[in-house]
Amino acid sequence: MQKKTTKNPSPEFPKFVISEKDVGERLDKFLQAKLKDYSRTDVQKLITEGHVVAGGSVAKKNLRLTEGMLVALDALPQKEASELKPEKMKLNIVYEDDDVAVIFKPRGVVVHPGAGALSGTLAAGLLYHFKDKLSTVNGPLRPGIVHRLDKDTPGLMVVAKNDKAHRSLAKQLETRTLHRKYEALIWGHPRDLSGEIELPVGRDPKSRVRMAVVRDGKYAKTRYKAKEFFAIATLMEYELDTGRTHQIRVHSRYTGHPIVGDPIYEGREASLHRIPPLYHDTAEELLKIAPAQLLQAVEIMFVHPKTRKKMTFSVPLEKPFEKAVKFLEKECLQKAPTFDEDSSFRDFDEAEVNHPYLEEDPIEEEESDYEEEPVKERLTRAERLAMKKERIKKRKAIEAEKREKKAKREAEKRGEVYVKKASDTVTGYEPTIDPAYLE
C-alpha cells in the first residue's frame, strides 16, 4: 500500500482545527466556507495540486473531516483566469434590486460558457448589463449564476448581485427552500394525475450527451401534476426537489412519456409510431410547432437574502409553447385521460420500460474447497419484471396505508369519524381520475 506524502505547511497560511459541528463535512466544502473570496473550483484545484494538509498528510478533496483534525494550507487558491468578455444582449428583467435580479432566459441561449459554447452566453450578457455588480462565488466564467436552465428550456432564473446574496440563494437550493415550477407538454397520459418520481440520474453509459436513470446516479426527485388533457398529450406541472442535469426530461422519458419536441429523449419522430393513426397528422403538425422540448420554468419562489421576505415570480408560456397548447385545444381537447391503445398514445413495451441501467448485477458465490460450487441461474426478463412489479405493488400499498393514516388524523382534528372509502385503490395500477372530469 502506497504511503501518503507528509508535508510541513508554512505558518504564513491559514490553519483550521476541526470542531464537532464540522465532523463528516467534505474538505472542499469546508474550505470554501472558510475562504469566502474563492470559488469551490479554486479550492478544489488547490487541494488537487497538493497544497492542503489534513491530519499530517496531503489531502484529497472528498476527504471527510474528523474532530480535532488539523487542516493547514501552504498556499492560497489562484483565482480562475477569466476569458469571459461582456456581450451586448437584450435581457428580459422581471425584477431587480441591489441584491438579486430575476430574469427570463429565452430559448436557445446557453447560461454560461462551456464545451462548444464560448460566446453568446447569458453570463456574458449579464456581465455587459450589470458590469461588476454580480457575485463571484462561482468564478469569473459564471458571474451571478446561481442555477442553470438547459439551452432550449426558456424560463425564470434568479441572479445574485453580490456574494452574500449568492451564498443565501445557494443555501436555499441546498435545503430545497428555493422552489422552481415548470410546465411541460408530454406525449400520452400519466397513470396517476399527481405524484412523485424518485429515481437516480447520471450520465448515460451509452451516450455522453445524454443523461439517464442509472443505478449509481445522483439522487433526484420530481413532483408532478396533470393540468390539461388532449387525445395524444398532457399539459403537466413539475416541481423540482433536486436540480440534476435534464432531470425533468429524463424522468419523463423513463416513465414512458417523453416531452413533446425533445430531440434527445425521444420526444420527436421517435414517438410518432406510438400515436394512433387517427391523430398521426395532428402529431406531425404539433412537432412542426415545437422548436425543441416544450418545457418552461414558469415560476420561481425564494426568500430574499436581505429582507427575508418570500418572493414569488411567474411568467406566461412562451409563444411556441402557447401556440402548441392552443392547437391541441382546438384539435383534440379531452376532459379526462384515456388508456385505450387504439385511440390514445401507446405505452412503452415491457422491454422498454424495464430499464437495464437499474438491474442489479448477479451476486457471485465464493468457491469452496469442500463442496462443488452451486450453479447460479440468471432470472429471465419476465421473472425480473414480475419481481419488480411486486416491489412496486408493495411500495404502493405502503403509500396507500400512509395516506389512510393521514386522513384519519385529519378527521380526528376536525372532530369527525373517519370512514374508509370503499373505492380506495393502490395508485399506479388503476387510473386515478378526478370526478370533476367526469361531469
Mean pLDDT: 84
CATH fold assignment of the largest domain: Pseudouridine synthase
Roughly what fraction of the amino acids lie in strands?
15-25%
Distance between the termini: 73 Å
CATH superfamily assignment of the largest domain?
A: Pseudouridine synthase
| N-to-C series of helices and strands | EHHEEEEEHEHEEEEEEHHEEHEHH
State the major sheet: 7 strands, antiparallel
Number of strands: 16
Radius of gyration: 26 Å
How would you describe what is shown here?
- Helix content is about 25%, strand content about 20%.
- It has about 450 residues and is an alpha+beta fold.
- The chain has 4 domains: about 15-75, RNA-binding S4 domain (Structural Genomics Hypothetical 15.5 Kd Protein In mrcA-pckA Intergenic Region, Chain A, Roll), CATH 3.10.290; about 90-175, Pseudouridine synthase, CATH 3.30.2350; about 185-295 and about 320-335, Pseudouridine synthase; about 380-439, no CATH class.
- Helix 1 (about 25-35) packs across helix 2 (about 40-50).
